[in-house]
Write a structure and sequence with these properties.
With 84 residues, the protein is of the alpha+beta class. The protein is built from three helices and two strands, in the order αββαα. The chain has a two-stranded antiparallel ribbon. The longest helix is centred in the C-terminal third of the chain and has 14 residues. The structure holds iron/sulfur cluster (2 copies). The site of one iron/sulfur cluster (SF4) has 14 residues, from helix 2.
Length: 84
């Protein structure tokens, strides 16, 4: 599953820099996670880095983007290839 940022976000900016996939960016009002780029940090880290740093715990799993661990790993490899 990709993760998502809820409207409890206080725009503290810390998660954007932590994302290894550059999946987080500022939206019209709050930060936003691009589900096509979020691997839940699979391939990079054991834990989602954005969740680790968010001071208000506003980054749950996105129920619209149900993915298995294998699918997340596949996304990780696809993103690596895209960045070459
Ligand atoms: S879980 Fe990882 S890949 Fe997904 S948005 Fe957070 S830091 Fe980025
Ligand atoms: S760390 Fe949490 S509160 Fe801060 S910008 Fe990211 S989602 Fe918003």
């Amino acid at each position: 599953m990709a993760l998502m940022i809820t409207d409890e976000c206080i725009n503290c900016d810390v998660c954007e820099l932590e994302c290894p996939n550059s999946a987080i960016s500022m939206g019209p009002e709050i930060y936003f996670i691009n589900p096509n780029k979020c691997t839940e940090c699979v391939g990079h880290f054991d834990e989602p880095q954005c969740v680790q740093v968010c001071p208000v715990e506003c980054i749950p799993k996105n129920p619209q983007w149900i993915e298995t661990n294998d699918q997340l790993l596949e996304k990780y490899y696809t993103l690596l290839t895209d960045n070459e």
